[in-house]
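Chapter summary example.
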Amino acid sequence: MRAPDRVCVIGLGHVGLPTAVALAGAGVAVSGMDIEPTVVARIGRGESPLAEPELGPMVRAAVAAGRLTAGAAATPADAYIIAVPTPAKDGGQADLSHVRSAVDTVAPYLASGAIVILESTVPPGTTRRVSEWLQESRGDLVLPHRSEDGRAPDVYVAHCPERVLPGRIMAEIAANDRIVGGLTRHCAERAAGVYRLFCRGDIVTTDAASAEMAKLVENASRDVNIAFANEMALICERLGVDVRHVIRLANRHPRVTVLSPGPGVGGHCVAVDPWFLVEAAPDLARITRLAREINDARPAQVAERVIAAAAGVPAPRIALLGLAFKADVGDLRGSPAVEIARRVAAALPDAAIDAVEPHVDALPRHLAALGNVRLAGHAAGAKTEDITDAITEAIAAADVVALLVDHDRFRPIDRRRLAGKIVIDTRGLWSPEPQASRTQPRRARS
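The structure predicted for these 446 residues follows.
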């Protein structure tokens, strides 16, 4: 079975671009398509539009070698990888419009033997719908949902969900195991051949629906575990008990691992994907739905604590430490910290709010538009002492200090600088360690 010589990647975002670069590094000719002109232009110049470690030099090398190109249209290829967003609508249902658009873009270029791989996280049954959509446009080809008697179709369709952690994408895209689910056995085998070009982890083949479910189960299980910790935080707060101390005690049990609570769940995966399970079986996914509701409510609860703390201070100054959705990255997608900042700024128009986020160089536009939030600190790559100075200045000027993200940059903060401040620590970074406790709860990487 010959590996593809040419691959076209549809969507050059946090999944598509690293995948394209990994394939190019394996010697494949890769063309990328994106609807955002600035993304296409930057890649064309050998620049990465994403602040992801190791990705920039790899983009530059792939473009310089002529193995990676980017454009606004698809190109003829042996294999097509669809890596477009699948956001949740207001009711939690998956918005598959980007997937449908990508399918329509790819369909005219398909030839017999082509492989179409869906990497976007989707509800169960979507990969079959991709095959059906392709069939609508290409009646001259036999798609796998119509192939009979175990015979190979003309076009192979499969689902291979991504499993990478922002901040470690380029390492994990090669090292992590991959699940490849085909609409038929032939589809799974042909799609697996694409990932064998660059993946050192195990490649497990299965059916498409199982692969779709596996990704949703992975992220929903994390969401449920985080929701339990957040619920315990609410109960302990009411009872006047230190939740982190309680978790440390509970985790001394050899078969118990409770995560640490936080201000909510963000990003494009854990905060979204469980809703696709709810959509698939709304009468059965009761724990999944409740976990989403608990975690979705956290930013508003934390914002109310900050607002209440500042309410008695005339013209208060507030330092919000962190805006990213997780520690040590500059990714603001779905960040609970951003939502907390928005709520606080909107409720306290007379407050001066310093948002300290060392990993970005600009506020989200909707935050900047409120007028009372400014970004303290510097762009990514600034000298440590400059960032440290910005953190120190923001804390010194603040009446209220809220730690929203446990960036490593915040760990060396001298706690004596917090004296006289109202401090809200949502991550337990400054939580005192009792003498008798020897274990720490695992940090929830949402």
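To summarize the output: The chain has two domains: 6-201, 217-425.
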